[in-house]
Amino acid sequence: MEKLKFTKLSSLLLFIAIASMVVVSSCSDDPAPAQPIEVDFTVLNASITEAETLISTTEEGLAEGQYPAGSQAILQTAIDLAQAVADNTASTQAIVDNANIALQAAIDAYKASVIVPIDPANLSGHWQFNEGSGTTAADDSGNGLDGTFMTGHTEFGGGTAAWGADRYGNANSALVVDQGAWVEVPYNAAINPAKITISLWVNAAENRENNRFLGLRSWLGYKFQLQSADKPFFTGATTPEHSGPIFDKDTDPPLNLDEWYHLAVSFGDGEMVFYVDGTETARHEVLPIADMATVTEHNLAIGVGSARYADSDANYGEETHEDYHIIPAAWGGYFHGSIDELRIYKTVLSPTQVQSIYDVEKPN
């Protein structure tokens, strides 16, 4: 939405700039002066003052209540164009009115870009992976959703999780997984919300299909992964459970191996939005609008796509069987690489909120 607002704003500003030039050129060719028509600049001048005050009383930065870098320059461009119209004695009322519309759009877009505090109540879980030893990944959200290291499924190679270097180069400050090694977080409704935003850092060590680094019952709940092209890929199932639409989308760019990236995805309100290193990279429409599917008897898996696997797919479609819609490991996947700073929110974060997380957590 914010990108769309700035695109529309740019069009309006371009229109005003062109229109201003048209006014000047048309007047220079007029052989006889026309009867002056009084033009009212009052509203436009008030908008210019409002915009100038907004710039002088706010600041750019990374903190809550501040504005993203470059946002003041965009607003200043709108002010300059509006001032040019106000200073031009040849401006018509239509040009003045349109200049005011463009400036007000710039003001609204600037106000909307403010870094809004993320309500702590919307943080479902936060795993920093800073323990450095032991087999527990503590949840720092205050919700008590600590994770436990688990041995990988034999189908995947029976791997064991370890501690490794994080994106800053700090030893034993990130989760390292391979061959199905994973961390199990006991089920809680907080990690199975109606809307969701997932934020984490990943460093893939291998190009492979179904490089899944997070999942709650795989595609029957949700999963976040890299596909074989190393593009971030998210799947979300919607209500009702077992029969609601399942949406899966991806985003460019492909990620390089052995390099840390901040990834985020939100799902809700009819959209799936991806971010790479704090920047929105894709916005997909997912209709009809519905809540995410409610998952039962499945824990959250970090490092693989599901906490439970059936021995085979023989009873996958049998509604009365305990393996109904339980995927076999052969259909699953695991991540090979490092994971850090995993956050799950029970709401859709805005682009500026995602950007603020990245700005705070990124290496200098």
Whole-number mean pLDDT? 91
Identify the quaternary structure here.
single chain
Binned, the helix content reads 10-25%
Secondary structural class: alpha+beta
How many helices? 5
Strand content: 15-25%
In this structure, how is the largest beta sheet organized? 8 strands, antiparallel
Distance between the termini: 29 Å
Q: Uncertain runs with pLDDT below 50, 5 residues or more?
A: 1-7, 21-28
Shape: elongated
Extended strand count:
16
Tell me the number of structural domains.
Answer: 2
The SSE order reads HHHHEEEEEEEEEEEEEEEEH
CATH topology of the largest domain: Jelly Rolls
CATH classification class of the largest domain? Mainly Beta
Radius of gyration: 26 Å
What would you say the CATH architecture of the largest domain is? Sandwich
Describe what you observe in this structure:
With 364 residues, the protein is α+β, with helices and mostly antiparallel strands. It has helices at residues 2-28, 42-56, 71-87, 93-112, 351-361, and strands at 123-127, 136-137, 147-150, 162-164, 174-177, 182-185, 196-204, 211-216, 222-226, 232-237, 246-250, 261-268, 271-276, 279-285, 300-302, 337-345. It contains five helices and 16 strands. The strands form two sheets. Strands 1, 4, 5, 7, 12, 13, 14 and 16 form an eight-stranded antiparallel β-sheet that branches. An eight-stranded antiparallel β-sheet has the order 2-3-6-15-8-9-10-11, with no helix packed on it. Strand 13 and strand 14 form a beta hairpin. Helix 2 packs antiparallel against helix 3 (71-87). The chain is elongated, with a radius of gyration of 26 Å.
